[in-house]
Design a protein that fits this description.
The complex is a heterodimer.
Chain A: H1 3-6, H2 12-25, H3 29-51, H4 54-71, H5 81-99, H6 123-141, H7 145-156, H8 161-168, H9 172-200
Chain B: H1 10-13, H2 20-32, H3 34-51, H4 60-109, E1 128-137, E2 151-157, E3 164-172
Helix pairs in contact in B: 2-3
The chains are: A mainly alpha, B alpha+beta.
Chain lengths: 202, 187
């Protein structure tokens, strides 16, 4: 899914990140740019999945890196950096959403996705994939912010239940309950919509 | 367990989040219950969809924009500090000029060098620096040559460019008994 999933901690990818984080803590000015290059796609991606809006996600990501820069001294080497970073990301997203009012951001317009694959060869397949992706995004939107954040981190970003709990600042048992509810709701949402659309179409 | 439906456990079972005992119980139930197998199949599918969700739509340009914005905001306070420091040191330099100029002027005025403070008795015998006159110009003053040996000229430019204070002084030997202040009447 991303560079971290491909290189879990312990491999050279994880060590590279640990080394960069160490250098950021020591005040190496080049290291912060390297940290961003290694992690920005993750931060943007998580923020986008939680907020459902490209521009909001970019604002959130900016805030995430300012907070990381401010509080990198509070990160203890040895604990999971990605859990620490995801916690900052989730909090920045929730703060941003709260500032925007009770309504979470309106999810990006999904109708344009049908035209994302102009190649005629696999048009049906691509259309099906686009519809599924649109469905998943709408299903995510139907979740509570806490359930959505838990599901995004645990099932889409591949964090462990313990890491997800750390990132959300809750107990692992709470994460289990949240992801259990979220998975069931996503399944029910998808089932209802696929049944409705297959029934409604000739 | 195997006789009751396991709908509530399936969302955790599907991703291996149950402990071994619960997981075995669900396996056993599924082997015997078609309805729960269908549920499990639907969950497996929606989880697969979740994992093949659209990748985040961020381009190289988005990442560049983010990096620039963050670096600018991170470096902004650091950049401002030296700027403030520079302004502060300029102000300090200006203050130094204000305070140093009169000191230097005093030093010049003390030419010829004054000996250490003498005993009051011999004071009048020693060269005394006394102001000749203070000229206030609204225009740059004409050059006035130093009036003979022992004369000093001190110019102080005020903050008003039109006003410059010029202090002309000459060391003279005072007649015995006269006070330095009374000599001003000679001017």
């Amino acid at each position: 899914m991303g560079e971290w999933s491909a290189a879990p901690s312990g491999t050279s990818g994880g060590e590279l990140l640990d080394d960069v984080v160490l250098r950021v803590r020591e005040g190496d000015p080049r290291a912060f740019e390297e940290l961003m290059a290694l992690t920005d796609l993750k931060v943007l991606g998580v923020a986008w999945r939680i907020l459902g809006d490209r521009d909001l996600a970019k604002d959130a990501a900016q805030e995430v890196y300012l907070r990381i820069h401010r509080s990198i001294g509070g990160y203890r080497p040895g604990e999971s950096f990605r859990a620490w970073m995801h916690r900052i990301t989730v909090n920045a997203c929730f703060d941003l959403a709260r500032k925007r009012g009770p309504r979470m951001a309106s999810f990006d317009d999904l109708d344009g996705l049908d035209h994302a694959h102009p190649g005629a060869e696999h048009a049906d397949e691509a259309l099906l994939m686009d519809q599924r992706r649109a469905l998943v995004r709408r299903a995510l939107q139907s979740l509570s912010p806490a359930e959505r954040a838990a599901l995004v981190l645990r099932d889409m970003e591949g964090l462990s239940t313990e890491e997800t709990a750390k990132a959300l600042g809750v107990r692992p048992a709470t994460v289990r309950s949240q992801i259990s509810n979220a998975r069931a709701k996503v399944q029910a949402f998808c089932a209802r919509l696929t049944r409705a659309s297959s029934g409604g179409r000739p | 367990m195997s006789s009751r439906h396991v709908t509530d456990l399936l969302p955790l079972w599907i991703e291996g989040d149950l402990d071994a005992r619960e997981s075995r119980a669900v396996d056993a139930h599924l082997a015997a219950c078609g309805r729960c197998r269908t549920e499990a199949g639907a969950l497996r599918e929606s989880q697969a969809w979740l994992k093949s969700a659209a990748p985040p739509p961020f381009s190289v340009e988005d990442r560049d924009e983010l990096r620039q914005a963050v670096l600018v905001r991170i470096q902004a306070p650091e950049r401002r500090v030296p700027k403030v420091g520079w302004i502060a040191s300029l102000a300090a330099a200006a203050l130094l000029i204000v305070f140093l100029r009169p000191h230097r002027a005093t030093a010049i005025a003390a030419l010829p060098p004054a000996p250490p403070l003498p005993a009051p008795r011999s004071f009048a015998l020693l060269p005394v620096v006394k102001p000749l006159r203070t000229v206030r110009h609204t225009l740059p003053p004409p050059l006035e040559p130093a009036a003979g040996p022992g004369a000093s000229r001190i110019e102080i430019q005020t903050s008003n460019p039109q006003i410059r204070i010029i202090w002309l002084a000459r060391a003279t030997v005072q007649p015995e008994g006269s006070s330095p202040h009374s000599s001003q009447e000679d001017l």
